[in-house]
Amino acid sequence: MNNTSKIIYSINIEDIQNVAEEELGRKLSKKELKIVEDKIGDYIDWYGAIDMAMQHLNLSK
User: Among 26, 28, 41, 59, which is disulfide-ready with 32 (CB 3.0 to 4.6 Å)?
Assistant: First the structure.
């Protein structure tokens, strides 16, 4: 049986802080982290990522 609530991919605070350190040269404050946390989903093309992964498998209709 498939577990439909299983998490396939996630982003954690460490991931965000690593990008902040690389791009900004510093870690984000708690306030900045909250803003990124609230907005990050608006910038991730989940549909496109899933579609591309399926295309990589050469799945057909």
Answer: 28
Does 61 fall in a domain? no
Q: Which amino acid is at 54?
A: M
Report the candidate in 1, 30, 6 with the shortest Cα–Cα distance to residue 16. 30
DSSP letter, residue 30: H
Task: Tell me, yes or no, whether 3 lies in a domain.
Answer: no
Q: Write down the mean pLDDT value for the chain.
A: 94
Q: How many structural domains comprise the chain?
A: 1
What size, in residues, is the chain? 61
- Tell whether 21 is covered by a domain: yes
Dihedral angle of Cα 29, 35, 38, 41, to the nearest 10 degrees: -90
Task: Report the sign of the C-alpha dihedral through residues 5, 2, 45, 30, in that order.
Answer: positive
Residue 1, pLDDT score: 64
